[in-house]
Write a structure and sequence with these properties.
5 strands, alpha+beta, 9% strand, globular, MYG1_exonuclease, 5-stranded mixed β-sheet
Length: 254
């Protein structure tokens, strides 16, 4: 798309799906959203839907691998594979209704596309304001300025990295940890910031001596009361209180 649209960041070669989205995507999004939105908002949703839905189809249709080298696992439940399942099997016996299968595939794509758009508009986009608020209050959350707090769980990662890029040197130091209250049980969580929104590699994981330990044993090792758990890979941990989770932040920052 970068060769067809000035300043577009995507370099994946477009398939027929990508070309249709390139030329008609904005109009289609307006109909699916069915609400008056600003051009900036529409462009943001356009980018989000391309990255989370259309680009995958473009890459698969053009035979672009998801990673270099041999992947550690393969994904067989992507949209292209599920659409392909409507095709007649090689050993099918008897009549096959191609038009019925085609219409079933269309319905599958329609439903998932609309769900992706509605999620981006109604769920993902509103989280941006929560991330902005958390960044503005970061020194109230922790004196280091490296911890942000959310009052509710939300899809914050992509927004954070976009804002980090937009703020540049105005966001210094960078954020290492996110804390929030678990709405299901009133416990607290500390989550580490990855190096990219979809990466499993962390900027600063929780102390390795905590990994895979729970409850009293974790409290003993960490010296922090009311600990609940630390994930085996050190990307998230829990405590029964906000005070305890802030102490976990303090120890993790050291």
């Amino acid at each position: 798309m970068s060769t067809l649209v000035p300043n577009a960041k995507w370099t994946t070669k477009l398939s027929s799906a990508g070309l249709v989205y390139l030329h008609y995507g904005h109009d289609v999004l307006k109909k699916v959203i069915a609400s008056d939105v600003s051009d900036d908002t529409l462009n943001t949703i356009y980018s989000k839907v391309y990255e989370s839905f259309v680009q995958e189809v473009d890459a698969i249709d053009n035979g672009i691998p998801i990673c270099e080298g041999i992947p550690k696992y393969n994904i067989h439940t992507n949209l292209s594979s599920r659409v392909g399942n409507f095709n007649k099997k090689w050993n099918h016996v008897g009549e096959f209704d191609d038009m019925k299968a085609f219409k079933q595939a269309i319905q599958l794509i329609k439903c998932e596309f609309e769900e992706t758009v509605q999620y981006a508009f109604k769920t993902w986009l509103p989280a941006r304001s929560l991330v902005i608020d958390a960044l503005e209050k970061r020194y109230e959350t922790h004196k280091s300025g490296r911890v942000i707090e959310f009052t509710t769980s939300c899809p914050w990662k992509e927004h954070y990295f976009v804002l980090e890029e937009e703020l540049g040197e105005d966001l210094s130091p960078k954020i290492d940890f996110v804390i929030y209250e678990d709405g299901s049980n009133s416990n607290w969580r500390i989550q580490c910031i990855p190096i990219t929104p979809h990466s499993f590699t962390l900027r600063k994981p929780l102390p390795k001596s905590w990994w895979g330990i729970r409850n009293d044993e974790l409290s003993k090792v960490s010296g922090i009361e009311n600990c609940i758990f630390c994930h085996a890979n050190g990307f998230i941990g829990g405590n029964k209180t906000k005070t305890g989770i802030l102490e976990m932040c303090e120890k993790a920052i050291e």
